[in-house]
């Protein structure tokens, strides 16, 4: 019996030892798992979605905050300036289970108005303080998740308009000369919804800017151009200047769209421009006259969005030799088929007729920036004459210049044709300022070019020229220098 009792005690002892080992193992695993979950050593991260160096009068801060462990428990965003913190956001994320909040990522689009919040101008810091559910936060300091230096600035640039009176016709062009302060990163002339970029450094004084601008044909004489300037913080100032816009009545024309023309042009243009085919030739024509026309003008604006920062031309534009006008600028055209009005569009440019396959020459010195099919214009050459001034030569049967070539006034570009939406062999010619079509007649007129462009520029480009008395100025008192 003693032996049996001894064996029972031995078995019991072995069981207890095994149970103890299992309990220790389970406790170790539980503690390790709990420590892995709740003692997460990783910290939240934060970053700005787009570069942020300045905060202007109105700004937006775009932030992404993330945590790859227990999840975020809080996010606080501040602007710290002159020893004071100005809170922009404060969010809390309660735990939804033993693991944590489950919030692993948050994005913020925070509108900021430093002036309204009375944040002082000058150096500041964007602070993001994000916390997660790790228990290590009780044992360690929590530095800012993000600390980025920014500058608070809500003082817009200065503007001085140097040229005096400007007289224009609706659809016409002009030049304004002005100065902006050194903090300006973008300036030009705003005319309703149109913006015409200014060119700094085109004249002898590097602090003077020049802007070619227009009052486009689709506006009214009530349009009031104004010089605008923006700084890197997005602060914007406007300065009005004297502009008298003369009214103008544009020609109205009715064009008959015949079945022969539709059968000849519509399938070809739809295929060339990769548009959906249709057996309804009128519907196809309307798609070309509306949609393709709009796409063509979008391409023109894109091509004309980059220009040489100095004038490449030096004299009046050369009108095409031995050519006669078939239309005038900005004709209001009505299109009829079988006696019914089917569409209305504005024709932007001049149609010039000559002999079939006549040579087409550059109307002024410039750089070839486009040679390709251009929708309704067909085979087209576009020249950059500098400072936002361009010319367009459309409906060509052939093109004899490559992109990038510099051409002189009178150099050959190609030959006339009837590519694109042309009913017969002719040249479509346009002059554009920053992609906006303007009246070419002005640029063919030596007196107009002298009075409105070249003499103005010469008066500011002479080494002995005294600065003109500003026609208008926008300069607040007490502006800090930068």
Low-confidence stretches: 462-482
The CATH topology assignment of the largest domain is Glucose Permease (Domain IIA)
Strand proportion:
35-45%
Class computed from helices, strands and strand pairing? alpha+beta
Q: How many discrete structural domains?
A: 3
Shape, per Cα inertia axes: elongated
CATH class wording of the largest domain: Mainly Beta
Could you tell me the mean pLDDT? 88
User: Largest sheet, if any?
Assistant: 8 strands, antiparallel
User: How many E-type strands?
Assistant: 33
Instruction: Count up the helices.
Output: 5
Task: Describe what you observe in this structure.
By secondary structure, the chain is of the alpha+beta class. It has helices at residues 2-38, 259-272, 281-303, 440-444, 446-461, and strands at 45-48, 54-55, 59-66, 72-81, 84-92, 105-112, 122-132, 146-152, 159-161, 166-169, 173-180, 184-191, 194-197, 199-200, 208-214, 226-231, 236-240, 243-246, 252-256, 324-325, 331-337, 340-347, 350-353, 359-361, 366-373, 379-386, 389-396, 398-399, 406-407, 412-415, 427-433, 436-438, 472-474. Strands 20, 23, 25, 26, 27, 29, 31 and 32 form an 8-stranded antiparallel β-sheet that branches. A 5-stranded mixed β-sheet has the order 2-8-7-4-5, with no helix packed on it. Strands 14-15-11-9-33 form a 5-stranded antiparallel β-sheet, covered by helices on one side. The longest helix has 37 residues, at 2-38. It starts with a helix and ends in an 8-residue tail after the last strand.
């Amino acid at each position: 019996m003693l032996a049996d009792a001894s064996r029972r005690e031995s078995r019991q002892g072995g069981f207890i030892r095994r149970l103890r080992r299992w309990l220790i193992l389970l406790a170790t695993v539980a503690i390790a798992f709990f420590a892995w979950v709740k003692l997460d050593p990783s910290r939240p991260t934060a970053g700005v979605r787009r570069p942020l160096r300045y905060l202007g009068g109105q700004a937006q801060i775009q932030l992404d905050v993330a945590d790859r462990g227990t999840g975020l428990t809080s996010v606080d965003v501040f602007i710290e300036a002159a020893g004071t913190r100005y809170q922009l956001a404060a969010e809390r994320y309660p735990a939804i289970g033993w693991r944590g909040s489950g919030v692993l990522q948050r994005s913020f689009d925070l509108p900021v108005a430093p002036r309204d919040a009375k944040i002082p101008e000058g150096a500041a810091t964007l602070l993001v303080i994000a916390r997660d559910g790790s228990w290590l936060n009780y044992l360690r300091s929590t530095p800012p998740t993000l600390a980025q230096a920014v500058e608070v600035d809500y003082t817009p640039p200065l503007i001085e308009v140097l040229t005096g009176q400007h007289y224009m016709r609706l659809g016409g062009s002009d030049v304004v000369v002005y100065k902006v302060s050194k903090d300006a990163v973008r300036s030009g002339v705003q005319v309703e919804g149109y913006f015409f970029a200014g060119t700094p450094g085109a004249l002898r004084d590097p602090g003077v800017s020049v802007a070619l601008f227009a009052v486009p044909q689709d506006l009214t004489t009530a349009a009031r151009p104004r010089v605008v300037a923006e700084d890197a913080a997005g602060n914007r100032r406007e300065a009005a200047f004297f502009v008298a816009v003369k009214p103008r009545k544009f020609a109205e024309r009715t064009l008959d769209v015949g079945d022969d023309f539709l059968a000849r042009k519509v399938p070809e243009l739809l295929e060339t421009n990769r548009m959906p085919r249709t057996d309804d030739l009128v519907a196809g024509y309307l798609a070309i006259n509306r949609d393709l026309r709009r796409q063509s003008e979008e391409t023109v604006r894109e091509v004309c969005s980059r220009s040489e920062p100095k004038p490449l031309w030096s004299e009046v534009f050369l009108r095409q030799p031995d050519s006669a006008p078939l239309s005038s600028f900005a004709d209001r055209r009505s299109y009829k088929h079988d006696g019914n009005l089917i569409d209305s569009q504005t024709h932007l440019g001049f149609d010039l007729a000559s002999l079939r396959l006549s040579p087409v020459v550059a109307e002024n010195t410039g750089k070839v920036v486009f040679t390709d099919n251009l929708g309704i214009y067909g085979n087209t050459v576009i020249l950059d004459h500098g400072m936002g001034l361009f010319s367009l030569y459309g409906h060509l049967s052939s093109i004899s210049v490559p992109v990038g070539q510099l051409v002189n006034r009178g150099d050959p570009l190609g030959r006339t044709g009837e590519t694109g939406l042309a009913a017969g062999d002719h040249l479509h010619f346009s002059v554009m300022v920053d992609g906006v079509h303007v009246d070419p007649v002005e640029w063919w007129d030596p007196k107009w070019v002298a009075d409105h462009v070249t003499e103005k520029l010469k008066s500011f480009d002479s080494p002995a020229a005294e600065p003109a008395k500003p026609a208008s100025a926008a300069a607040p008192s007490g502006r800090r220098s930068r």
